[in-house]
Specification:
32% of the residues lie in helices and 23% in strands. The protein is α/β, with parallel strands linked by helices. The strands form eight sheets. Strands 12-13-11-14-15-10-16 form a seven-stranded parallel sheet, with helices on both faces. A six-stranded mixed sheet has the order 5-2-1-4-3-6. It has a six-stranded parallel sheet with strand order 17-29-28-20-27-26, with helices on both faces. The model has no long low-confidence stretch (mean pLDDT 92). It binds adenosine-5'-diphosphate and zinc ion (2 copies). Keywords: ATP-binding, DNA replication, DNA-binding, Helicase, Hydrolase, Isomerase, Metal-binding, Nucleotide-binding, Primosome, Zinc.
Length: 748
Amino acid sequence: MSEVFVRVALDHPLPTLFDYRCDTAERVAPGMLVSVPFGKRHVVGLVCEVTTHSDVPAERLRAVNHVCTACPPVSAEWLALTAFAADYYQRGLGEVALPALPQALRDASRWSRLFAPEERYSLTAQGRVALPETLPARASALRKLARALTEAEFLIAADARALHPKAIATLDAWLAEGWVALEVVEAAEVLATPASPDTPAPTLPTLTDEQASAVEAIRDANGFAPFLLHGVTGSGKTEVYLRALAEILAAKPDAQALVLVPEINLTPQFESAFRARFAALEGTSIVTLHSGLAEGERARNWFAAHTGRARIVLGTRLAVLASLPKLAIIVVDEEHDPAYKQQEGLRYSARDLAIYRAKQLGLPVVLGSATPSLESWWQADQGRYKRLTLSRRAVAEAVLPTVKLIDLEEERRRGRASVEGLSGPLIAALKARLERGEQSLVFLNRRGYAPQLACDACGWVAGCPRCSAYVVLHKPERALRCHHCGWEARIPRSCPECGNVDIAPMGRGTQRVEETLASAVPGARVLRIDADSTRRKGSAQALFSDVHAGEVDILVGTQMIAKGHDFQRVSLVGVLNADTALFSHDFRASERLFAQLMQVSGRAGRGGLPGEVLVQTRYPRHALYHALGRHDYVGFANSTLAERRDAHLPPFVYQALLRAEGRTLEAALAFLQQAAAALTEIPAAERVTVYDAVPLTIVKVMHVHRAQLLIESASRAALQATLRAWQPKLRGLKGVLRWNLEVDPLDI
Ligand code: ADP
Ligand code: ZN
Ligand code: ZN
């Protein structure tokens, strides 16, 4: 018998595969995981090739320790997808493929237990009635358990234990009462919804004509078919996804669908809509994949997708690389959202990879948005994506809100009263909503209490000792906090420079607005939702359900409240502090601002109440606000694209960014200059424009100085060829702590 060798991808910056001898008893195939020695450690790698020959001398070849037999191999298509991503984003294959697998799979010591049979509890008909009635009012742990059982149909023992240490004892007591049933199931089957033929088919809304033709177009698509579903807020894009999926999944009994959402907080809303819709379609199990899941849960969900048991995978950007052997359609909701771009490690765009994946497999892919990215809009202009339009709100009574601008200069000139940055008209409108029992939403994109703490006497401003940035005042936490490195300190009683005790917060963040609203609109129940108020797992969902339940009159928050939520009783949206983004040096700032304002405006007037949006501004004549007032995405997109074309900006050129981090700014800049010089030796770089190396806006973070070099080309191929040739040269350069390359950067 001839010897067997494997070529293995490891999570390592060197873009090569590593050869090993494989003489284990288990059979090995490409796409399987192996545990191998690497230096002094043992690591998990992915087999890319199995051969009978290796160029590595026999005495230097080491042997595979184990082959993971618990997990069937990933497909050749999946390997090709990660190879493409690695090549396009200038990374090693293993650096892309291995982090795309659940963490639990990358620990060989857990392989034997990982996908073992599981115990699963489900509520019986008797329990469904009896359980809620017998729960003591204050037993919050019990309630949590009961809620988890009711919501998810069943509960896996391991997950129950994670909820509460005594959960199993409780579940066993309920078992004795006959309130729950217990069964042992294979890991891959764990998530399949138990077939329940008595589940009544949901009543479906009658599609609008526009929705119907969108669904039809997606259903009838042949081969690779990218769609840009441009639908105003509240136009029922979700219904289009649901119907298209239902048709495709019903037509092919083993087909899988991948649905991407930009933010974890949107998954519960989607999950329940999808579960409700597909409960009647037997065996249609739905799993979620996002970073908020516990490790075991994520591994099981991934496994259910990988083995084809999960028919629908709902996830955030990382799910774009899930293993889905029977993938038949991909949906990217809110495709314009910057959250689809990973900002560290492999800096990929999940939206762009979704397109590539659909192309590779010859599938329909639906990009949905009320404000598509200009990249996607331009693709549609050129006929590469098919545009599907939903121009009206789906609910007959729901019309788009009216947008009014409150001219802050004018308010001041006329001497009209304002309270802490909240103008008179906005306060009056908030009060009116409160009287009518309607909800309002106040949006500003700055968390904390105040962005600065300053001394009037000497001009001191509290700054971060580790970064070139001011620190943000957080009042409830009684702390100064750096939003760049996490540095924290107590709020000083007096100015550390001159001793003046009159130091004052400057500017406004969500905490301060929350405080102001409580006194300016007496009697209103004000709730704040931002990254600070939702730090604990599950808290965002709890806060949002308070809003939906009508327990909140005014919701104040950052972009977290702007996205996707279908609030039924919000009739007023107030926008504060939007002007700062109008004059940013980042050419994408206005596109982002417009999308955010359209999104947040779209929260108003969804349930049939007439909606109103009030934007406080110093620049009421700005074109962006005018487009917003007319809900004119198309006009905004066309004029912005024309500007971009004139200025030779994306999507008319392709860009890449080299970032360097050094102990000094000089070191970082010197590295980038050498890097720029190295480009002159690369033939493909003749078609590439190289800009000057510049410091980042926040130049120092955690004592590290940062600078960047932008290169661009009208030819994507020339840029890619340049990057490929540039990498080895960059590896030869010294003098910085770190550097990284980003392809198609969003923040410049
Ligand atoms: P979008 O994602 O486009 O902002 P949603 O999918 O949230 O819009 O839909 C807005 C609302 O319209 C939801 O409450 C949804 O249930 C409802 N809806 C969608 N389609 C229809 C329809 N054809 N008839 C009636 N209501 C619909
Ligand atoms: Zn001072
Ligand atoms: Zn800092």
